[in-house]
Design goal:
Elements lengths: L3 E6 L3 H13 L3 E7 L2 H11 L3 E4 L8 H11 L4 E6 L4 H10 L3 E4 L4 H12 L4 E2 L1 H11 L16 H11 L4 H8 L3 H15 L4 H10 L6
Parallel strand pairs: 1-2, 1-3, 3-4, 4-5, 5-6
Length: about 220
């Protein structure tokens, strides 16, 4: 059987090295590429056309959710497995909406990562145990998940930007806080304004504060 071809996407080199070492220690994997941000991830996937992408969510510039959307648009046969620190309901469901086939939390055991990659490569969906239970509870109507978040159309990164805008920060301060370029912040704001159907920053602030954004 041909090895599973994997691209690693994470902005921390130590994490990528650890994942590469892990996969190289196991049978049946070939790491065909790495990327430190979403833009590079899309480019790497287009070049290598892997079976699976291990994708972080929070990264500078294009985040993992938007990168997943772009990756699956460019190479639909690739399976994306989120590997992140974000154990939040809105992040899980945002990942599902953009087409991720799995969601694992960093800190997962070697066997769990191995099983998850093989599962998504085979076309299955897989989640960390705690995440899976909450997904099941949600679709069973058990109400185990928190109440729906305002502005579900926004990505987690856009929600972070909107929260800081509502708190009164300007673009330069937001860029410094989130380790982004000011151009990237401006791009996020343009997307936020379009998704919220507002004319500009002031209207966005009013709507955001009405929903509790911008509070200390």
């Amino acid at each position: 059987m041909d090895p599973i071809r994997v691209v690693l996407v994470d902005d921390h080199p130590v994490v990528r090295r650890g994942l590469r070492s892990l996969l190289e220690s196991l049978h049946g994997y070939t790491v065909v590429g790495e990327a430190a941000d979403g833009v590079a991830a899309v480019r790497e996937v287009q070049l290598t056309r892997p079976d699976v992408v291990l994708m972080d969510i929070r990264m500078p510039g294009l985040d993992g959710l938007e990168a997943t959307r772009a990756v699956l648009s460019a190479v639909p046969s690739t399976a994306v497995l989120m590997l992140t620190m974000l154990d939040e309901d809105d992040a899980v469901f945002a990942a599902m909406r953009v087409g991720a086939r799995g969601y694992l939390l960093k800190g997962a055991e070697q066997q769990e990562i191995d099983r998850a990659i093989r599962s998504v490569a085979a076309g299955e969906a897989i989640f960390s145990p705690g995440v899976a239970q909450r997904v099941i509870s949600h679709f069973n109507g058990a109400g185990a998940l928190t109440a729906p978040q305002p502005f579900p159309e926004l990505t987690p990164r856009e929600r972070e930007v909107l929260d800081l805008v509502a708190a009164g920060l300007r673009n330069a301060a937001i860029a410094e806080r989130l380790f982004l370029s000011q151009k990237t912040v401006a791009n996020h704001l343009s997307s936020i304004f379009a998704k919220l159907s507002v004319d500009g920053r002031q209207q966005a602030i009013i709507r955001a504060r009405d929903e509790g954004f911008g509070r200390p």
